[in-house]
Amino acid sequence: MARTFFVGGNWKCNGTSDDVKKIVGVLNGAEVPPEDVVEVVVSPPYVFLPLVKSLLRSDFGVAAQNCWVRKGGAFTGEISVEMLVNLNIPWVILGHSERRLLLNESNEFVGDKVAYALSQGLKVIACVGETLEQRESGSTMAVVAAQTKAIAERVLNWDNIVLAYEPVWAIGTGKVATPAQAQEVHTELRKWLHENTGPEVAASVRIIYGGSVNGKNCKELAAQPDVDGFLVGGASLKPEFIDIIASSTVKNNN
Ligand SMILES: O=C(CO)COP(=O)(O)O
């Protein structure tokens, strides 16, 4: 089954409005493969969402980097799903390891957020991934399965979910997973989805890789059969993001 390649740019907590305008200018001027080959979504900090939404080319999507777990209300400092819907922001990144680890977001909390965001019509980039310690102790698959299970227990329809495998040890470290390491976990995740959510979900859900993806290593990673795209951090703030988008064409012979 054809899974459209997906390239997300997670800008994290970076930049000024001038930086944002510059990045969007580069994206708007870029020649990229058509939408049936690659879906591109960029994720600026909350405060720049309206600016990016107003300036960005219409064939690229926009994602928030987080949202509140339930309907908005007396939750100082939070941004609700309803607000994102109101601003026509179609996507949200949830469960990023920086939030799981630095802000103590549990698997259950992330699962609740995914379910609520989907219920209100948002599409979700749900992140899973193990720490170096967990990898070295041989628990990679147990960790990502538990993270995925907390989502699967709360969600019936996976049509609007992209699953991002982001090994924590590869994030912002310049230490990229080898194509074989990425493929191995993606295959296992697809197997897990097959057993726990059924063959259709397993065949159609896009599993993307994140962790030190750049313009040089993207092609070899993209060539792996179960790597359906990328979630890019640092390199999404640079012109090489265009090269990463272009790596989608390695799937063209599928
Ligand atoms: O966390 C990431 C994307 O969400 C990856 O970040 P880097 O590409 O900077 O390693």
From TrEMBL:
- Organism per entry: Eucalyptus globulus (Tasmanian blue gum)
Q: Which family does it belong to?
A: Belongs to the triosephosphate isomerase family.
Kindly tell me the pathway this chain contributes to. Answer: Carbohydrate biosynthesis
What quaternary arrangement does the UniProt entry report? Homodimer.
Query: What is the recorded name of this protein?
Result: Triose-phosphate isomerase
For the keyword Magnesium, the answer is: no
Q: Which UniProt keywords apply?
A: Isomerase
Tell me which InterPro entries the record gives: Aldolase_TIM, TIM_sf, TrioseP_Isoase_bac/euk, Triosephosphate_isomerase, Triosephosphate_isomerase_AS
Superkingdom classification of source: Eukaryota
The answer to whether keyword Isomerase applies is yes
